Amino acid sequence: MAKTSKKKKKKSTDPERAARNRMIAILSAAVLGTGAVFVGAGMGVKTLDERAQDLVAPGEIEYEIVWGASKSGTIWLPFSERTRLNALVRESLVGARPLSREPLQEASLAIASTGWVNGAPRARWTPEGTIVVRADWRVPAAAVLIDGEEVLVDWEGHVLPLSYPKGSSNQFQISNTALPDPGVGRLWDEPELRDALRLLRELRDRDLLAQITGIDLGNGRDHGILKLMTNSGATIVWGGGPGRERPAEMPTDVKLDRIESLLRKTGRIDASMASVDVRGPQVLMNRREN
To answer: What is the pLDDT of residues 43-55, one digit of tens each?
Structure first.
């Protein structure tokens, strides 16, 4: 009886095989992310996670950070900071296992540690096997002058990881805080500083910031009596912060209306005077000395 020879099947070298395996692994990882019960019951989350990783050759993990941007799409984070944050994420992913949870956690922690974001950033795998990191970015609002430096803070008063020599931050300068710098990422928990940030918001909403350079919180007994500093060197005595007016002071809306009226009539929010006081029943002005 003639023997039939069996030919050994060669392993497929289909060039699309790697791509198919990669997609299977990614879909598996995506299912893991949904926490599907049938997967966990059938073979165990850990087992599936490991099988998904085995289908993908190890290598450098690609990632994308979705930066905070203005309504017009302009990314406001300085290029130097973007470079630094990219380096932090890249370093956190060295040696990480593709398509596992670890890289997602490491990328998220790397961004969270910088002080630039609120809460925990969200990291996920894309169908292409890239990590995308999104976050609630803190937007610079002003710079607090302290010890000869301008330290950036966001609109809530969180300290951001940038500081500049006095006068070079290109931000609204807030001076004479009573409390020291609490450190990067922490809230500068001073009521008068919060008053200044709220006032900047109110002025921004009325489009009245163009001629303002900063806010002085006041010294000693006058601490908390806010003064607007203008680009002509004048001061506008504002008083207590929005909603925290002192006795006999006009409410915020009245003060804003007064500044708006001066701008409309004179072209200047300070009426080209040395100082303007908008707190009381009447607007008081002091002329510049010749």
So the answer is: 344 554 554 555 4
